[in-house]
Amino acid sequence: MQLADRLLSQVATSTSGADYLTHVLPDVASEFAVQWAAIVDRWPQWRIRAEFGRQPFDHLPVRFIEEVLDREAGGLTTDTEKDGWALLNVPLATDSRQQTVLALAGRRLELDDLARSVAISRTLATSLLLAERLGRLAHKEMQLRETLRVAYRLSEIFETVPLLEALAEEATRLLKCDRASIFIWDRPEQKLLACPALGVEGRTLYLPDNVGIVGAVIQNGESIRVDDAYEDERFNRAVDRETGYRTQSLLCVPLLDGDGRLIGAFQGINKLDGLFDSDDEDILGQLGIQAAIALRNTRERERLIRTHRQLTEQMASRVRIIGDSTATEAVREKIERLAPTDLPVLILGASGTGKEVVAQSLHYRGPRCDEPFVAVNCAALTETLLESELFGHEKGAFTDASATHKGKFELADGGTVFLDEIGDMSPGGQAKLLRVLEQKVITRVGGSQTIPVNVRIVAATNINLAEAVREKRFREDLYYRLNVVTLELPPLNARPDDIVPLAEFFLRQFCPQARRPVLELSDDAVRRLKTHAWPGNVRELRNLMERVAFLSSGDRVEEVDLAFVLSPLKEEQQIEAGVDFGLTDATTRFQTQYIERAIERSGGNMSEAARTLGLHRSNLYRKMKQLGMNVPDER
């Protein structure tokens, strides 16, 4: 095979220009029977780029090389430092703008070799350019793979400072430099935050945005390469003096966000081998794009986490068990013991006693406080809707399923599901719920894939579940699954010491919303509150204080402000105390009369009557049925 053919054939198997020259220079030396073959170039000083054999000179014959380049023609000379040696130089037309020569040294070189070397140099120059371009393509492919790897690594870092440090670490590895830093631009303050700043306490450093090489990049928005930092008047030596570090070469590129807006700069310092070049600039630019994306995502995530924590803290501060009674103190103590655990809790109590507040307290005082709290009113869900609401459905699962829908359990994953009015759940719903509680997986309606869920269950009811189990209205196995720990809330009229603290708490809550100073309770108002029976429990008291906060005209709450809701029963409606009635019958008669008055006062509107009593409408209907009352149609 001719030498020219061999030169061309080596291109396909070479990974770079340097690799190509390593393979072909032995063939060139053999072809001309010389002891030394080399490629010499000037970038910026004269150097041997690649060589084969033994160099016969103590130093390069720069003058002769430059003469050859000036003539743009090959040359042969025996005027060397070594007797009997001849030197042949031929310019190579490469991307280095005629600053590259093929140099041959041997004892048998003649003018005929000069003519042959010119033809060979043309093939060599073409092949070298092609090898370099193929090498750059391979390098670009490597860069793409590395960029994707870096992007994947960055996607797993969720805090700004560790993210910036990881980016700097990747930059030093890919650029083969000693250090790297990212500078985040604070426009309003006209400052740059450097991270990591090695050698600086805390690894962060604030700098003016118009000082040094980085400042120049920020002001001009263009990349800067510096081969000798201390020879560049833009270089700021103050950081080196502070850290004791010596900066030699550096590369700095602008950092742009997704909208092309300048947000900072990315800098590499002290190339370990040689100087920074255009390939390094491309690498750092690609890393800069990944840095901007990752930084934006991380900041957005931090903002969302911060907002979520603030909302969680606000919610936790609002969820308070108010009261001075012995019963309330016992509930608070039990919540403190149960909150850190994952035990299922069953909360028992009449409507309006604060069962959901207790459930929220268990959630926000436990380790799941940063995860969702999802409440489900089981009484409001029909059996046909219950499975879809709790476990979700796939698109097309039924007629109205126009999109995939996540159920309450999936939405609450990691947090707490509060199953209110669990005693009113249908038998079919009870069976499906039991299966989920036992297996800890759900399947959406219309789907086949099982989805693991990690939730804590807190359930509540105002009915006697044990009696419901005996009457076959509630599954015994579900009852024992839920009834691991029981919290029973007494009605408000059984803990009179809590009435005034609760009323004052609600006034402090609603008066600012009504844009007025917090109202105080007069002695007469306190007395009237304590003598009321509170059939609607805490919910009734809360609704009353809300009305007072918005509608009362005085500077404090007087008894007259409570008369509209807490008006005493008429003479003929009062229940006479005596031996004619037992406590249970007296309570039943009182509740019946009170509900009748509320319905009468609302003009038969059951929704309004329920609000007046501090009940949900469904709970009011159920209570009336329990008391044997006729349930009128709502108007």
Task: Describe it.
- The protein is α/β, with parallel strands linked by helices and 635 residues long.
- The chain folds into four domains: 3-137, GAF domain (Beta-Lactamase, 2-Layer Sandwich), CATH 3.30.450; 155-302, 2-Layer Sandwich (Beta-Lactamase); 319-490, P-loop containing nucleotide triphosphate hydrolases (Rossmann fold), CATH 3.40.50; 493-626, Orthogonal Bundle (Helicase, Ruva Protein, domain 3).
- The strands form five sheets. The protein has a six-stranded antiparallel beta sheet, sandwiched between helices. A five-stranded antiparallel beta sheet has the order 2-1-5-4-3, sandwiched between helices. It has a five-stranded parallel beta sheet with strand order 13-14-17-12-18.
- Helix 1 (3-9) runs parallel beside helix 4, helix 4 (111-154) packs parallel to helix 8 (278-318) and helix 17 packs parallel to helix 19 (559-566).
Share in helix: 40-55%
- Total strand count, please? 20
CATH superfamily of the largest domain: P-loop containing nucleotide triphosphate hydrolases
Rounded average pLDDT: 82
When the domains are counted, the total is: 4
Measured distance between first and last alpha carbons: 105 Å
Major β-sheet annotation: 6 strands, antiparallel
Portion of residues in beta strands equals 15-25%
Using the 3D structure, state the CATH architecture of the largest domain.
Answer: 3-Layer(aba) Sandwich
Radius of gyration: 42 Å
CATH topology of the largest domain: Rossmann fold
Structural category: alpha/beta
Query: What global shape is seen?
Result: elongated
